[in-house]
Design brief:
mainly alpha; 265 residues; 10 helices
Length: 265
């Protein structure tokens, strides 16, 4: 199972390098089901892994000038504050046992995994549906819908803090719609935002469980190795065509987690 976990880490990196995001959504299930790590600790580990891989993934976009720094700052600040606050105060405040329905007890771990599963299902829809990539040929002056950007940034930050996922599937449409960014620039800017808020959220971790930093470094290294494989493959394979297939896989995983955490307990 441990070997399968490291192989899965590489696969997550490949997905990020090949399709430009979405791979991080599998990080928590990999840590919980393959490495048998506690769900709360897994979300903390995921923040670091997602943050580190996003730093590497965003580098090529930055070199090509596809990162809008102003947008990253405006969207990123409320998101970073929200994720830090969530990891430092909200997650530790969630009681270990939340609700009992007969003999079935909804624990903190089960709640986080169910929330994560719902997020996976929502994310899978954005990957599966056919999107119309109509790039604007005439450059328009960038506009910011500040109230909606603030709200979106806070919501994404809280979700990231709770489940440890990057939330690129929420950030990218927000950047396109609310900040009027072209799609490629939205992807590059999204990776920078994900990197910053995930790593700062990890610093805000307030877990009583001691962390295995050597293990965390190994998994992150395998994921980063996968990114370079994904980037190399992206020159030969159209990642956009693989995205719906990956979306269906994420959907199946989301449904499996719900069944595993409720029926198969």
């Amino acid at each position: 199972m441990e070997i399968a976990g490291y192989v899965a880490s590489i696969f997550i990196g490949i997905a990020l390098g090949l399709i430009g995001g979405g791979g991080s959504i599998l990080t928590v299930p990999m840590l919980v089901y393959l490495f048998r790590i506690d769900a709360v600790l897994a979300t903390a580990y995921s923040l670091f892994i997602v943050g580190a891989t996003s730093v590497v993934g965003s580098f090529s976009y930055f070199i090509k000038g596809l990162v809008n720094v102003k947008t990253a700052v405006i969207f990123g600040i409320p998101s970073i504050v929200a994720v830090y606050f969530t990891r430092a105060y909200i997650v530790p405040a969630i009681p270990h046992e939340i609700l009992a329905v007969g003999e079935f007890v909804i624990t903190k771990n089960i709640l986080l995994m169910l929330l994560f599963a719902v997020l996976m299902i929502v994310a899978s829809y954005s990957m599966i549906k056919k999107t119309k990539h109509h790039q604007e040929k005439v450059a328009k002056k960038q506009q910011f819908n500040y109230p909606l950007i603030l709200i979106e940034g806070i919501v994404v930050g809280i979700l990231t803090g709770l489940v440890g996922a990057g939330g690129g599937f929420l950030i990218i449409p927000a950047l396109v719609i609310l900040s009027k960014l072209p799609m490629k620039e939205a992807v590059g800017t999204s990776l920078v935002i994900i990197a910053a808020k995930s790593l700062i959220g990890f610093l805000g971790e307030n877990s009583e469980t001691p962390m295995d930093y050597l293990f965390l470094a190994k998994v992150t290294a395998f994921a980063i190795f996968g990114i370079f494989i994904g980037m190399a493959l992206s020159k030969k394979i159209d990642g956009a065509k693989l995205k719906p297939i990956f979306g269906w896989f994420v959907l199946i995983m989301g449904i499996y987690i719900i069944i595993k955490e409720t029926i198969l307990q």
